User: What shape does this take?
Amino acid sequence: MDQEFHRIRRLPPYVFAEVNAMKARARAEGEDIIDFGMGNPDQPTPQHIVDKLTETVQDPRTHRYSNSRGIPGLRKAVSAYYGRRFGVDIDPNSETIVTLGSKEGLANLASAISSPGDVMLVPNPSYPIHPFGFIIAGAAVRNIPVRPDKEFIPALERAVQHSVPKPTAVVLNYPNNPTAELVDLDFYAQVVDFCRHHGIYILSDLAYAEVYFNGNPPPSILQVPGAKDIAVEFTSMSKTYNMPGWRIGFATGNRRLIAALGRIKSYLDYGAFTPIQVAATAALNGPQDCVDEMRSLYRERRNVLIDGLGAAGWDIPSPPATMFAWAPIPPAFRHLGSMEFSKLLLREACVAVSPGVGFGEHGDDFVRIGLVENLHRTRQAVRNIKSFLGNYDKVIADAERQRAAAV
Assistant: This one.
């Protein structure tokens, strides 16, 4: 049988796969590739968190099935975090749930609230799970802007006016991946007011809540009065505590959405390994110096990268948050699009980045650069790119010849 499965037919080929394959081939041939492509923290998990894991795993009682909603101590720690950080009261029993990373939570909630043909509003460009979680669940996705400017609410109004059926939910992600956009509470208040009026749920992805550089901590949408009537927010341990492989995140907010996610998860998993949940509790309740160190690390890498590439002739806005720079393709190369430019940068400068088109069609004039290499390798990447840009006439001519030959 060679028929393709329905849900698979709705998923395009993974855009990053081609660049990843090129990267693997180059490394197999001995090339030293400086990899800014994936948002994968390169620092170790803080020692006190690892110590709590190793201590807990010695107890054989923790080797049994866990709780799909998350152990009570961890849910209480999430509640305390929201109270401490945002001044928001969270009921640990009904308003928060532990997820296997925020990505799993988003995908499973999409499955819980979507029916075939439902309309969901998702920014473009955006992190791939935001649209594709709904697409996998059978819903239709309508694009809205990323930038939180005066056009955002009118775009929501047009979406409600021209969508049949009326949109079920809207996805927000600030600090934004990939663009690093930030918002304030006034923006959230406008969106909450609009969505409450129209009966639209809000799914807020706050995975980069603690990765900020300019002194003003990003707010939570749950700080807006009445937001919990319609909003749920996803957070994660991955970036804040350098725990990406541990797969621990949270969904917090509206009780009905939390209950729906909990019901789906009760059929799909028994929760994260209990020692990991205990260690995550220690991370949230313990000393936070490690979070300050994480911010300082990414700030220093950001400054070296942005200043160095600016001196090399590639002007990139300095991201105020996240671990990414959203870099406009240099004008001389923009006609190539983000995929071809990323391949060219890999081939000619031995630097891997993420093509912006992988985050949606409106990202095709950009590439995303992750701040995931140390300062020495970041400086080496800047030197490689400077040489690449300084030789752009020849590089473009060679690239055009290769494209013509491939047609």
